[in-house]
Amino acid sequence: MPKAIRVHQTGGPEVLTFEDVELPALKKGEAHIRHTAIGLNFIDVYHRTGLYPQQTPFTLGSEGAGEVVAVGEGVTDVKPGDRVAYAGGPLGSYATERVIPADRLVKIPPSVADETAAAAMLKGMTAQYLIRRTFRVGPEHVILWHAAAGGVGQIASQWAAHLGATVIGTAGGPEKVALAKTRGCAHVIDYRSEDFVERVREITGGKGVDAVYDSVGKDTFPASLDCLRPRGIWVSFGQSSGPVEPFSIGLLAQKGSLFATRATLNHYTATRAELLETAEDLFGVIASGAVRIDIGARFPLADAAEAHRALEGRDTTGSTVLIP
């Protein structure tokens, strides 16, 4: 019988339970998949704690890879036996098997392993839309990436450097600083011992950066705005330290006619065409070697609570996968 990590009440990692589940019957447009690897992401913590509310009970998880077991009526893009991956869509990846809308699945190229796909889909497609569409990064740009040693940070820093941009990263502690320096960052600031605003100003000769990419939230705002050049853009796409407090829009004018956006992957992969284009771009840079996907840790699916403790304790680097 399939098993899954279920949340019956929101709270800490201890609320995660590993239990038998019964899969619903396949409907038109759906696919039944058997997971081989599952991606761990900070958004899973937001769902578990209730920051992003869900109706309980529910199965966690937004990202996975595996094999198609069966398809419902009308499904033509994938077939039984196909290796597929996904990110976003309905929750439910923390499971040995699941049913999912087939139009959310993409085929995994032969050159990409299942674990790599599961580790890269959400983080990698997030990096893609952030640096290719939210703000199109090129050789003329200098950007600041918070949490550069994290999963999204490592992928995005390599990708942006491949595009010719100068990447300044922040990381916590000597080990993570050293890691970020090997993943595309021209400069890395240890936020635990250095003032990142002062260092950014030093590095840029007082000009500031073109864009700040911020998944940290509370701890890096509003200081991130002080790192920007006039008319620069602050891109918020997460809040690992807590949500940003409401602020007056006038602050953007005071600090240089700045732009600000709160971006999410679902809005950038809303159509199947956008999803396929985003995934194709990601798989292309992985296959070319321009972007290396680091799997920093693997946990059995049954030990998802331990994986969450490691993630929240900032004890992880790169991507973490759960193995069914």
UniProtKB/TrEMBL annotation:
CDD domains: QOR2. Transmembrane segments: none annotated. One of its GO terms (cellular component) is cytosol. InterPro entries: ADH-like_C, ADH-like_N, ER, GroES-like_sf, NAD(P)-bd_dom_sf, QOR-like. It comes from Methylopila turkensis. Keywords: NADP, Oxidoreductase. It holds the Pfam family ADH_zinc_N. GO terms for molecular function: mRNA 3'-UTR AU-rich region binding; NADPH binding; quinone reductase (NADPH) activity. This is Quinone oxidoreductase. Residues 11-322 form the Enoyl reductase (ER) domain.
